[in-house]
Structure to design on (600 residues):
């Protein structure tokens, strides 16, 4: 299994030199308590925990998997002990409000910790990871009594949380869900139904699990407008906060999965379980989006984690593995062959992994900072812009980062050659674990429809323009900067093309709305490549400035510029083929009769 080392230096570069988080935090908080020293200390301690506690049980957890016996779920050896250390370290409460038992630090700092956890051991990270969304949902929509009873213990990590959406007959189309909520005389509700694919739905790491459940009231209208949201604890909580009787929710089975085998993915049966309404009746889906958006950013992190983890393993192997000689002559004549890192194609794969890991990191840290502004900002106009940027960038981040993360993971296997296919090396586990990331929290196709249909077309391009204006301003401010002209000129041209291409799709969609579905995934990937190009241009500029100032870290900053050059020359041109496929239109997809798809 690759030895995980937290990318401390790159995290510091993105946070301090590219995104200037210290000033960001000062502006939000009105104080200077969250300074660079504190930020770096938190990252360092988080890195140690992930390297020393989580990474060593990653492969063993995959080998052992979860146990299931007579409705009881057990986690692999070491998982429960690692969780206890996680709680003792105060990590669950890092970004929660002080008044609710948290440490009051920004959410964007929590994202950094989540990335390191995910790269070290994604399966383990699923258990506390789902709690973040439950916490956000209760913070935003829970009553004071609900917060006192459930929220503080979720924040402390004493309990964990889940979200329960999917049912056997419905996944993305929640409008047809069947779980029922019958009112009880005491103001609670009786919840009955079956939910599937519930990550961390049951386990042995805590005494109680708080399920956030979508269900229908008896008089609810059909479709998504008739869905309400409920708190359903695994164990009922008494008035004094002590645990009472086991609630009517049980684990019927756990899924046998391709990857993330150490994460318990459960079928949950609700049989008259006692639940409590969150938010207004029939507005559950609106409330749940608080949870879902948090989860989607968390899932985007899995793509970055896969790229980073696979890159680390592949890089070490490529430096050590000897095979053939360089085409231009031996590079290590004292050895029987050259290390494979001398070969251009191996470098192509390594640089692709590096570009997606480091570019994705910058995008997600930026996105999490917008969340800070939405939650803690004082300027309403700035909060509105940040909220709109999050709405636009979240589907891009979720789908693009997971697709490119999967690509990077596959490159890692390829660098290892036949050894990559062997379990002992650990590279194939990364592929298996990250394959789910393009599926859950909305598949790539669903994210693409959200982006193009809802976020772009329904706003008449308004949300797109919010971001392209930021890119345009950056390009205009650096138009005369010769040091980064190689990045600014193509970025400016593609930023304009982005708007033109969107207009063309919109014109076709006026004649047939199916054109949006035909273009959506290619449009999302096109948007992702340009978005990452912007962040690589930002990073190249920051690196060039350090080199010009005479930095002693010449190697680090030179590598950053060279990776940006690789991205612009070898990755960004993919947009040209995407323009062609987008313009290929609808007819070639829909002309074939269904019966003609197969003859046997």
């Amino acid at each position: 299994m690759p030895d995980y080392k937290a990318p401390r230096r790159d995290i510091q570069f993105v946070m301090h030199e590219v995104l200037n988080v210290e000033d960001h935090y000062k502006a939000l908080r009105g104080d200077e308590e969250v300074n660079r020293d504190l930020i770096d200390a938190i990252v360092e301690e988080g890195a140690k925990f992930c390297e020393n506690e989580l990474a060593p049980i990653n492969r063993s957890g995959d080998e052992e998997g979860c146990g299931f016996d007579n409705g009881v779920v057990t986690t692999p050896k070491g998982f429960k002990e690692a969780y206890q250390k996680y709680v003792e370290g105060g990590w669950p409460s890092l970004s929660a409000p002080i008044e609710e038992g948290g440490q009051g630090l920004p959410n964007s700092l929590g994202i950094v910790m989540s990335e390191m956890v995910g790269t070290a051991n994604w399966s383990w990270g699923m258990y506390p990871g789902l709690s973040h969304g439950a916490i956000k949902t209760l913070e935003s929509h829970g009553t004071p009594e609900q917060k006192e009873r459930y929220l503080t213990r979720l924040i402390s990590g004493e309990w964990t949380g889940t979200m329960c959406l999917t049912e056997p007959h419905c996944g993305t189309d929640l409008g047809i869900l069947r779980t029922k909520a019958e009112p009880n005389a005491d103001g609670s509700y009786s919840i009955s139904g079956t939910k599937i694919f519930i990550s961390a739905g049951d386990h042995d790491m805590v005494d109680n699990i708080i399920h956030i459940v979508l269900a229908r009231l008896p008089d609810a209208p059909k479709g998504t407008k008739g869905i309400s949201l409920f708190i359903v604890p695994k164990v009922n909580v008494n008035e004094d906060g002590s645990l009472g009787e086991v609630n009517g929710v049980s684990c019927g089975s756990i899924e046998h999965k391709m990857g993330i085998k150490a994460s318990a993915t459960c079928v949950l049966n609700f049989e008259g379980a006692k639940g409590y309404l969150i938010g207004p009746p029939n507005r559950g889906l609106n409330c749940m989006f608080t949870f879902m958006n948090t989860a989607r950013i968390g899932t985007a992190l899995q793509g970055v984690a896969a790229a980073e983890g696979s890159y680390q393993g592949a890089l070490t192997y490529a430096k050590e593995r000897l095979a053939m000689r360089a085409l231009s002559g031996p590079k290590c004549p004292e050895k029987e062959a050259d290390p494979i890192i001398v070969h251009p194609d191996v470098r192509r794969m390594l640089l692709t992994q590096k570009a997606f890991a480091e570019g994705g990191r910058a995008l997600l840290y930026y996105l999490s900072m917008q969340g800070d502004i939405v939650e803690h900002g004082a300027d309403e106009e700035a909060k509105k812009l940040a909220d709109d940027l999050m709405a636009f960038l979240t589907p891009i981040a979720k789908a693009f980062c997971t697709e490119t993360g999967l690509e990077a993971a596959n490159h890692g296997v390829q660098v290892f050659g036949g050894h990559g296919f062997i379990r002992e090396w650990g590279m194939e586990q990364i592929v298996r674990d990250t394959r789910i990331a393009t599926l859950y929290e909305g598949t790539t196709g669903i994210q693409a429809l959200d982006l193009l249909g809802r976020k772009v077309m329904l706003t008449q391009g308004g949300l797109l323009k919010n971001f392209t204006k930021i890119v345009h301003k950056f390009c205009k401010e650096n138009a005369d900067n010769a040091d980064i002209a190689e990045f600014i000129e193509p970025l400016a041209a593609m930023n304009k093309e982005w708007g033109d291409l969107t207009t063309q799709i919109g014109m076709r969609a006026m004649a047939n709305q199916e054109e949006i579905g035909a273009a959506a995934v290619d449009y999302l990937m096109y948007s992702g490549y340009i978005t990452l190009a912007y962040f690589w241009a930002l990073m190249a500029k920051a690196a060039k400035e350090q080199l010009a100032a005479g930095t002693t870290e010449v190697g680090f900053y030179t590598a950053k510029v060279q990776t940006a050059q690789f991205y612009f020359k070898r990755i960004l041109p993919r947009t040209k083929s995407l323009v062609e496929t987008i313009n290929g239109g609808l007819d070639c997809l829909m002309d074939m009769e269904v019966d003609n798809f197969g003859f046997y």
